[in-house]
């Protein structure tokens, strides 16, 4: 186990692994997202309350879930980087931020468009929406903090602290609809036991989420490779690896 | 169901299609910008290696 962990955390090995895995992640993500869009837009019946407008949920909810999940991955990677001083973990954390910010923007934008016909407003300073906006600022703050250092090691340490502290916002976003009175509807799929959603409406939602996760993995492969190249400027293994790519 | 009905989405078409458009735009942009920065890094690494060879 430790041997495997050690091997995985070596930059040349991680670089080659990311190169090899990326097309698998990418094409399965594309296939699943297309399948989910077909299921959500064509096959699923209209909702009895929200009519066809509920179809927005197939991009809105998975993007919102990813905005939190990517952050958790980023915070764990940052913590591993600080505790065990693994450079690759810092590279992974740095690679997560732009993708997570993208998902957060989508969650906010589609939520705003969803809110217009459902609640009659584009924006409301509601606990769920406000905490999700803070989530976006955490990503942007993390990226700005990294960019403000010339020295990569110092950028790693400072931004890791922000990433780890910022993780408190994740449960706040998740449970905001339970803790406070919110305009936002309560969770539909994550209820323990029996989810309150029909199977024909549920499967495209799970499929889209899985598609987004694989998409994240694919983009992460590219971003981690960039980070490794930037950090390992003068490593000798680069010579043969870069020539072939 | 006709194509016209499908696009109209029971009068919610504008909201639904703009949400899907936003999502697709982000997915494409995020993947593209990751690819672009990777290409830049590979290009920079190749130039460094060539310069080292010339220096040696």
Beta-strand portion of chain B reads under 5%
Number of strands of chain B: 0
| % residues in beta strands of chain A | under 5%
What class, by secondary structure content of chain A? mainly alpha
Chain pair forming the biggest interface: A-B, 42 and 29 residues
Tally of helical runs of chain A: 9
Q: What percentage of residues of chain B falls in helices of 4 or more residues?
A: over 70%
Order of helices and strands of chain A: HHHHHHHHH
Note the total helix count of chain B: 2
- Find the structural class of chain B using helix and strand composition: mainly alpha
Low-confidence stretches of chain B: none
| Form type of chain A | globular
SSE map:
The complex is a heterodimer of chains A (245) and B (56).
Chain A: H1 2-8, H2 11-43, H3 57-84, H4 87-119, H5 127-147, H6 152-166, H7 169-179, H8 199-231, H9 238-244
Chain B: H1 3-8, H2 13-55
Question: What can you tell me about this protein's structure?
Answer:
The complex is a heterodimer of chains A (245) and B (56). In chain A, 77% of the residues lie in helices and 0% in strands. With 245 residues, chain A is an all-alpha fold. The radius of gyration of chain A is 20 Å and the shape is globular. The model of chain A has no long low-confidence stretch (mean pLDDT 90). Chain B is mainly alpha-helical and 56 residues long. Chain B contains two helices and no strands. Chain B has helices at residues 3-8, 13-55. The termini of chain B are far apart. The mean pLDDT of chain B is 90. The chains are: A mainly alpha (245), B mainly alpha (56). Chains A and B meet through helix 2, helix 3, helix 4, helix 8 and helix 9 of A and helix 2 of B.
């Amino acid at each position: 186990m430790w041997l495997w962990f050690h091997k995985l955390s070596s930059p040349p090995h991680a670089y080659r692994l990311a190169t090899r895995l990326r097309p698998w992640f990418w094409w399965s993500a594309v296939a699943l997202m297309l399948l989910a869009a077909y299921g959500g837009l064509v096959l699923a019946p209209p909702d009895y309350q929200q009519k066809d407008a509920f179809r927005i949920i197939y991009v809105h909810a998975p993007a919102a879930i990813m905005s939190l999940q990517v952050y958790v991955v980023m915070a764990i990677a940052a913590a591993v980087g600080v505790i065990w001083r693994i450079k690759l973990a810092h590279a992974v954390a740095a690679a997560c931020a732009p993708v997570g910010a993208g998902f957060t923007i989508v969650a906010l934008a589609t939520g705003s468009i969803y809110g217009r016909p459902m609640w009659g407003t584009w924006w409301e300073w509601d606990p769920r929406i406000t905490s999700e906006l803070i989530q976006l600022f955490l990503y942007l703050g993390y990226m700005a903090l990294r960019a403000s250092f010339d020295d990569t090691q110092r950028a790693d340490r400072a931004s890791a602290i922000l990433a780890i502290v910022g993780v408190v916002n994740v449960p706040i976003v998740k449970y905001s609809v339970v803790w406070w009175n919110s305009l936002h509807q309560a969770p539909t799929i994550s209820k323990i036991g029996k989810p309150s959603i029909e199977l024909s409406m549920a499967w495209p939602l799970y499929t889209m989420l899985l598609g987004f996760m694989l998409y994240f993995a694919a983009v992460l492969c590219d971003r981690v490779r960039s980070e490794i190249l930037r950090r390992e400027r003068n490593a000798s293994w680069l010579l043969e690896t870069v020539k072939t790519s | 169901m006709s194509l016209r009905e499908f696009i109209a989405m029971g009068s919610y078409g504008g909201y639904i299609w703009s949400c899907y458009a936003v999502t697709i735009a982000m997915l494409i942009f995020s993947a593209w910008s990751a690819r672009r920065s990777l290409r830049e890094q590979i290009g920079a690494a190749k130039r460094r290696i060539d310069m080292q060879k010339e220096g040696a």
